[in-house]
Amino acid sequence: MLIRIIYTLLLAIASPILLFGLYKSKPNKPKFGPRWKEHFGITPKLNATERPIWIHAVSVGESIAAIPLIKALKKQNPAQPILITTTTSTGAEQIAKLGDLVEHRYMPIDFSFAVKGFLKATKPKQMLIIETELWPNTLNAVHKANIPINVVNARLSEKSCNNYAKVQPLFNLLHPCLDNVLCQTESDAERFERLGVEKHKLFVTGSIKFDIQISEEVKQKGKALRSELGLARPVWIAASTHKGEDEQVLEAHKKILESHPNALLILVPRHPERFEDVFELCQKLGFEGARRTSQTEVTESTQVYLGDTMGEMLILLGSADICFMGGSLIGNKVGGHNVLEPAALGIPVITGPSYYNFTGIVHLLVQHSLCEVAEGTEDICHKVCQHFSADQAPQQQKSERSKFLSNYTNIADKVSKLILEQKP
């Protein structure tokens, strides 16, 4: 109890800074508008008579990961209402694309009064947390309300495990509230057990991120974009890049242009508020660039194409010959991003050396020659050029890569069955 009081006091001190970062206006970032009150538990009631399953997906990545699970739950029980919460407005923007399939609310801040207000308004019968977003007061309030809590697609890197171990007394408040932890890998489960989670609560289900359903419409849009960019020229994409990576990617592209003068780089920053800065960086470094939002014609002289839209990553990936996945070149700050999306499209993938959030997935793809690890700029340049110069049948290669991932589908169906079998 004392530990939770100390935690709450520290949160109260830090919350103005956290809220400033959350609400600060940035280019291309959706605004919260009057819905900011939901962060304080002033939550509109749901348009449902039955109690919903509540899924929390903090931001964009978790929201995208939740989509296969949402569809699997609806497939097994179409009448089941689903409530999904995000903390960020960019996450909310992703969920809005699901239309009437779910209802969206913003996640209350981790104060007991806010969480209790949220629970009173929404009356969920279960809480599903995507990956590992564990908040002490939230878990305590939900657990006290006799609402089962499942962590889905749970992952725990060695780094995160060590960080939790440093505040073990705080983690000891968290794990008794959890009913089940559905882990991506055996290693994740072992780390949770090491921190004190009881073994009977741990299940290894695999990653629902493998359940990537790419529609024929998206594939056709990818092909159409490639026609606009140039069918005969080599095209690579740097996806979900962070500050500090764009310079390295553009340096690699400069070297690639020496051997492949007509090569095109599709550059897609992870955060929309950085679109303007990244385009200015391209111009500053002397690249001839074009922006997707400007809809200007891409010519043979265009060297960088900025993917400055949201929700079109699969289309942009589908137009490229090879993908470099960002979040993996800036030390231990990010830990990589989802390499499965390009792999599902049959596109070879390169990641930088820091991919600890996707260790199991990267190792599996590397083992089956679907992914390569590059140590830095020179290595990225070398590997991209190798693919550009390789004498191969691209369509056959794409088919073989996509076929491999079909062995790992239906994970969301298995997870949803476990969830629906659990009685509130």
Descriptive overview:
- Helix content is 44%, strand content 14%.
- It is α/β, with parallel strands linked by helices.
- It has 2 domains: 27-211 and 410-421, 3-Deoxy-D-manno-octulosonic-acid transferase, N-terminal domain (Rossmann fold, 3-Layer(aba) Sandwich), CATH 3.40.50; 216-407, Glycogen Phosphorylase B (Rossmann fold, 3-Layer(aba) Sandwich), CATH 3.40.50.
- A 7-stranded parallel β-sheet has the order 3-2-1-4-5-6-7, with helices on both faces. It has a 7-stranded parallel β-sheet with strand order 10-11-9-8-12-13-14.
- The two termini are 26 Å apart.
- The relative contact order is 0.11.
Write the layout of secondary structure elements.
Blueprint: H1 2-23, E1 53-56, H2 60-76, E2 82-86, H3 89-96, E3 103-106, H4 112-122, E4 126-130, H5 136-144, E5 149-154, H6 158-166, H7 168-174, E6 180-183, H8 186-194, E7 202-204, H9 216-229, E8 235-241, H10 246-259, E9 264-269, H11 275-284, E10 289-291, E11 304-306, H12 313-318, E12 322-325, H13 340-344, E13 349-351, H14 359-367, E14 371-373, H15 377-389, H16 394-405, H17 411-421
Parallel strand pairs: 1-2, 1-4, 2-3, 4-5, 5-6, 6-7, 8-9, 8-12, 9-11, 10-11, 12-13, 13-14
